[in-house]
Design goal:
This is Probable branched-chain-amino-acid aminotransferase. The chain is α+β, with helices and mostly antiparallel strands. About 30% of the residues lie in helices and about 30% in strands. The strands form two sheets. Strands 7, 8, 9, 10, 11, 12, 13, 14 and 15 form a nine-stranded mixed beta sheet that branches. Strands 2-1-6-5-3-4-16 form a seven-stranded antiparallel beta sheet. It binds 4'-deoxy-4'-aminopyridoxal-5'-phosphate (PMP).
């Protein structure tokens, strides 16, 4: 088998990522009844693997999903997917779907056998590199983020209907991507990333309606290390409109500068100094081995 384009673990077997399949009857597909997490490998090492496993475990508990493997086993499976692929830079997803009911026609989630899928594919940037370079243009979506009381944003989920509508709006408006406000007008997050603003030298990120991003956590830690004041706070579109700088954070991209939010152009349309400092220190810390677990590329067995 050719694992060079990625390796997946599905139904208890390791297969090339493109061959891993899921039933059309799986509730993950028909109901978005699924959770996932994404961790990355850079230069042959996982970044914050245990933090991602811990968040995945919290998400599983939150949705009352129990995969057929333990958390430690899932960590090893992820390691083996990367080893099999040989990828030095990889996007590694772990997914647990509700699966299918054991009893045909049952509508009871309790009757389902939950399914685990893990895969490692080549690195992906949520915002393309050339766009990151000039600073992304963000659109403030008119569609509100789904209510946290209905879909808990701290549980990583594929309820992306609102985010996808935001993306279409953004592209129609000529922007690169979107940020969504909640029904009360507070800033939340975007399709695949948390957001930050910089104002009067202070770094701020929304306190509600967001996934507790691991990159967001890393940026807050980096601010502490670099002596940059940082705070988690309620933010409104007025805060966006008066921001000196803005950036997005995600596992699949790191710190991604923004140069325009709605009509507000920041820093003469270029990424800001604090954003660039955090971006470069994020990758510098990676190189220095910060929060890393090296991949053992010798484990290439598929059984
Ligand atoms: N919010 C949403 C909705 C996301 O999908 C992601 C991507 N995982 C993030 C935030 C960023 O989280 P992290 O830094 O852990 O990748």
């Amino acid at each position: 088998a050719d694992f060079s384009k990625g390796a997946a673990f599905s139904d208890g077997k390791f297969v090339p990522a493109g061959e891993a399949a899921i039933s059309v009857l799986d509730w993950g597909f028909t109901r978005s009844d699924v959770t996932y997490d994404v961790v990355h490998v850079r230069d042959g090492a996982f970044f914050r693997l245990q933090d991602h496993l811990d968040r995945f475990e919290r998400s599983l508990k939150g949705l009352r999903l129990s995969p057929p493997s333990s958390m430690a086993e899932i960590g090893e499976i992820a390691m083996r997917c990367v080893a099999l692929s040989g990828l030095r830079d990889s996007y590694v997803a772990m997914i647990c779907t509700r699966g299918r009911p054991r009893i045909f026609g049952s509508r009871r989630p309790q009757d389902c056998d939950n399914k685990l899928i893990v895969y490692a594919i080549p690195w992906i940037d949520v915002i393309p590199l050339d766009v990151q370079e000039r600073g992304a243009h963000l659109h403030i979506a008119s569609v509100p983020r789904i209510a946290s009381a209905s879909i808990d944003p701290t549980i990583k989920n594929y309820h992306w209907g609102d985010l996808t509508r935001g993306l279409f709006e953004a592209h129609d408006a000529g922007a690169d991507t979107a940020v969504l406000l909640d029904a009360e007008g507070f800033v939340t997050e975007g399709p695949g990333f948390n957001v930050f603003i910089v104002k009067d030298g202070e770094v701020l990120t929304p306190d509600r309606g967001v996934l507790e991003g691991i990159t967001r956590r890393s940026v807050l830690e980096l601010c502490g290390m670099l002596g940059i004041p940082a705070r988690i706070a309620p933010l409104t579109s007025d805060d966006l409109a008066s921001a000196d700088e803005m950036f997005c954070t995600t596992t699949a991209g790191g710190v991604m500068p923004v140069s325009r939010i709605g009509d507000h152009i920041m820093g003469n349309g270029r990424p800001g100094g604090v954003s660039l400092r955090l971006k470069s220190s994020y990758w510098k810390q990676h190189k220095a081995g910060w929060h890393q677990t090296p991949v053992d590329y010798s484990i290439k067995t598929t059984s």
